[in-house]
Amino acid sequence: MTAALPALDPEPIAPAGLDELTDLVADGDVLVLSGAGLSTDSGIPDYRGATGSLRRHTPMTWQTFRRDPRGRHRYWARSYVGWPQMAAARPNAGHSAVARLQRAGLLGGVVTQNVDGLHQAAGARDVVELHGGLDRTVCLACGDVAPRAELHRRLRAANPHFGPRAGEVNPDGDAELPDDVLDGFVMVDCGACDGGPLKPDVVFFGETVPRDRVGGCFRMLEDAGSLLVLGSSLTVMSGYRFVLRAAELGIPVGVVNLGPTRGDAKVDVRVDAPLGAVLPELARRCGA
Ligand SMILES: [Zn+2]
């Protein structure tokens, strides 16, 4: 009878560029800019995936949400169905590694394009949500900001029999749902001003990120020793402009992303590998 072989420790991951990235991050004052690729391991699918192609489901635009009551109704019906899955999403090893790097004093700030709150759930502090957060709503009439969980309780009460299963949840938290099902959904309005239409407190496609929010992030970048882009293909300008600005300022840029990015020509260090493996190893190497 042969003895069972001892379990082997997993081979430490060492993709091309990780040594240089470790040197960059170990210098400190790193401004992190994260995108959807950081949250895919948490079950929140990336819009664009590694190849950069758009998924079949087109995200809601600000123009549709603002002008088309039926489009708004459709958004909220899908969002209502998808919310429990969004609310149940948990941070992954990549989010935890970022929080550890911050606790170790190596980060000058965390800016995210994600609206899922998973950096904060992993313990990161003072996270700037460039595109807002799905965990709250804002009234388009009076500006009242309220917890999304409160809206969900009100919607459950208003929709006791509305409960189709979610086949798929998109990064902005809405779900695939046949049109005929949508008609049975009852939306509620703002509870503070009694009648204003509610919007998730996120920046939709086609909507401008508030100027003071961008300005604050640019000031953080000006004070940073480096910019570290995590899980973004930099397809949208709201993220890409940080790389352009860093290049203008002579601030080195590192990128960890699975697949190519729009900023590759302007980047100093690139690691093309899964974030859930690279970031814990990076944190370990930095003593975080
Ligand atoms: Zn209101």
Model description:
- By secondary structure, the chain is of the alpha/beta class.
- It is built from ten helices and nine strands.
- The strands form two sheets. It has a six-stranded parallel beta sheet, sandwiched between helices. Strands 5-4-6 form a three-stranded antiparallel beta sheet.
- β2, α5 (118-121) and β3 (127-129) form a beta-alpha-beta unit.
- α4 (93-103) runs parallel beside α10 (275-285).
- The radius of gyration is 21 Å and the shape is elongated.
- Bound molecules: zinc ion.
Provide a short characterization of the protein structure.
By secondary structure, the chain is of the alpha/beta class. The protein is 35% helix and 15% strand.
Relevant terms:
10 helices, 288 residues, binds zinc ion, alpha/beta, three-stranded antiparallel sheet, six-stranded parallel sheet, elongated
Number of separate helices: 10
From the alpha carbons, calculate the radius of gyration and give it in angstroms.
21 Å
> Would you tell me the overall average pLDDT?
88
**How many E strands?**
9
State the major sheet: 6 strands, parallel
What is the 3D shape? elongated
Give the assembly state of these chains.
single chain
What proportion of the residues form beta strands (DSSP E)?
5-15%
Q: Could you say which small molecules are bound to this protein?
A: zinc ion
* Poorly predicted sequence stretches spanning 5 or more consecutive residues: 49-56
Would you tell me the structural class of the helices and strands? alpha/beta
Amino-to-carboxy terminus distance? 44 Å
- Percent helix, as a range, is 25-40%
The SSE string, one letter per element, is: HEHHHEHEEEHHEHEHEEH
User: Which strand order does the major sheet show?
Assistant: 3-2-1-7-8-9
